[in-house]
UniProtKB/TrEMBL annotation:
Transmembrane residue ranges: 12-34, 54-73, 85-109, 121-142
Protein's UniProt name: DUF2243 domain-containing protein
Keywords, alphabetical: Membrane, Transmembrane, Transmembrane helix
Lineage: Bacteria, Bacillati, Bacillota, Bacilli, Bacillales
One Pfam assignment: DUF2243
Species annotation: Metabacillus herbersteinensis
InterPro entries with a match to the protein in the record: DUF2243_membrane
Length: 155
């Protein structure tokens, strides 16, 4: 496998895995453990359970797809700064999950909020978006720092 193909598999796989992982954490923590919200709040409990089940199935499939890409990529340490690509992509995928899910579901579609019955519901929604932005920025910095070092080494 070429270095470019391996790098692409790591980039795609780590991003998808991070996206699915944050989706799973959202479902486990906010839906199940804290029971703050469900995917679709304005339904009966059986419909909420179905909507959450479809969500959990989707993020599980996402985790498997990300894992397959990473398996195909092989050992990330075979590449210069491969671990940085892996970690950076994972954090970026997780950050994008929070941003996309937060913007679309919490603000545009308004199908649920992070903690809808709280008087500070907007603060919870903004914190969710802020965490997504923070993960995205950290992921970008991890990847960028690896690229700078790689350029210095090869120059």
């Amino acid at each position: 496998m070429s270095t470019k193909t391996k790098r692409n598999f790591i980039n795609i796989g780590s991003f998808i895995l991070g996206f699915g992982f944050l989706g799973s954490l959202d479902g486990i923590i906010f839906h199940q453990l804290l029971q703050w919200h469900s995917v679709i709040m304005d339904t009966s409990r059986p419909e909420q359970i179905i909507s959450d089940g479809v969500f959990h199935l989707a993020v599980t499939i996402t985790l498997v797809v990300g894992g397959v890409f990473l398996w195909l990529a092989g050992n990330p340490t075979d590449l210069s700064k491969g671990i940085r690509l892996l970690v950076g992509g994972f954090l970026m995928g997780g950050g994008i999950f929070n941003l996309v899910e937060g913007i679309i579901n919490h603000h545009i579609l308004k199908i649920h909020r992070v903690k809808p019955d709280d008087p500070n519901a907007l603060a919870f929604d903004l914190a969710f978006l802020g965490m997504g932005a923070l993960l995205l920025v950290i992921g970008l910095l991890v990847r960028k720092s690896g690229q700078k070092q790689e350029i210095k080494i090869s120059a």
